[in-house]
Structure prediction request, 646 residues.
Amino acid sequence: MTPGLVLLLRMAWRNIWRNPVRSSVVFVSMGLGVWAGLFLMGWASGINDARVQDAIDDYLAHGHVHVAGYTADGTNLRALLPNAFAAVAQLEARPDVRGVTPRLQVPAMVQAALGSSGLLLQGVDPQREAQLFTIPHRLPDGAFLTDTAREFNGVVVGQALAKRLDLRVGDPVVFTYQDTAATVHSTLYTVEGLYDGTSNLTEEAVAYVRLDKLATELGVPEAAHDLAFRVDPSAARQKESLEAVCAQIQEDFPEFRVKSWRKTAPEMGYVDEIMAQALLLFMGIMLLAMAFGILNTMLMAILERQRELGMLMAVGLTRQRVFALVVLETVLLTGIGLPFGLLLGHATLVFTNRTGISLEAFADGLAEFGISPVIYPQVVTHWYLPVVALVFVLSLLASLMPARKAVSLNPIESMRAL
Amino acid sequence: MSLITLSHLRKVYTETASDVVAVDSVDLTLEAGEFAALVGPSGCGKTTLLNLIGGLDRPTAGSVVVSGTDLSTLSDADLVRFRLEHIGFVFQAYNLIPVLTALENTVFILELQGVPAAERNRRGMELLEAVGLADKAHHRPAQLSGGQQQRVAVARALASKPAFVLADEPTANLDSKSASTLLDIMADLNRTEGTLFLFSTHDPRVVDRARRTFHLEDGRVLREERKA
Prediction:
């Protein structure tokens, strides 16, 4: 170790305790800043994870099989998977696949007594859909495409749509859509159930009918636009493992396109990264404001110790060592609050991750954005190191001005200072 | 060869109104082991002269040669190192480091020089013993009286066995008993360590003890006295 470094460390450590109250204010503010920043990151991560999971459970699944030219809005009706049921069977035979559901999708206009609305009419197999998604189980009213629905053209619509069109179970509605030959069909359906989606947007955008019924209407028996599948949860957890499974499935279906949810709904994945980066930036701004407080504290300390610093330089402390002393003091001053902030932040995240934070009072507003009313903040350990680095860099930056001020002192004039 | 040689030394401070000549054409030499004093009233230039000899200030003209090294040839960084290696300082206001103990203050220079802990602590205790403060080794400056603090400052100045010690008004803030004790200690150390002591002072107690005195006025050495 460089001669004198231990001495400088010892002096720096003791110097920060010369004014315990002033230093404690810095420790506490730094600790609280780090705690608040970590909690916000964990909170945002929790919201986003829940949003992604809810979307996967609602409609997204882990992956999809389509033909080339498929569009999720159903506008390319001819993008059909022929022999869809054979493909379903082949997919289900894979050990890493936990469920498959075929879907027909057609843009439609729904007309009710009080108005009309455009949406995506989705033909599904009720049993398979119920295995993969939660919507068939979240029906505050009615049922999800029972066998008898085949007789009366049952349709399940979202609560938000039902509210807008004043629809109740048993009400008639007319769906108008084109088939693959561009023939327009206007078919009378009966509302069989109202589903509770996690987002009002989804509730207004998608309605469900039986697959066999829609296939007959469109004249495409045995076909589907989309095979949605779920994989083993352990494979789904990590981006890389899910992509690996999708790549293997793609090898089984070279004539089709196999995509994970990250590719069919890339915005869901980006939000996570963008939000975390935005929060790190937010935390950086918060800590930067704190760094100015630290800078001010250190400038005051330098001013108060002008005579002492002059003496140190007079007896042989080089300017580099004076610089190092001030930098060490600043880093220690900020560094003490850091572990407390990290520990407190970690403990808060671990605790709230278990208990969850209920926002039932804001449930309606949150539902607009597809956010669950109970938030489970995530323990964002992967952000700890960047936060430590951020604090370290900011404290170094905050030390530069006081350190420059200290080394610019003239020993003789400083020793004359009162 | 003399330990310190000042030749035609001159220091002028440029003020807005007019130039102030603080040191004017000073020539003197000092040998190892001397116990000397720069004497004169306030503003006569003794502290400026001491700062020039200590490499804390640079002369406007002339030279300061210490142990054969002309200080004007050294860079600022080299001057700091030179002070660290060759010069001990004792200041009027003690100027100890408040966060270090008496022993840590004493061995401060040795620690900067990278002297091993055992060796520097042995030397530190030896000096604290010599200044009568061995029992206060682990006290901080705030726990010591003014006289005790100045004795620690003397111990610090001598710790690295410098070529000479510059003491600027060392007794100015001390009562007569403390001043007398301090002067006894410095005289003893001058004898035992063989270190040159150069004081700036107007304290007659110091002048009485000095074996060589330089009387200054208006930046010039008016006369020099030697005692047997």
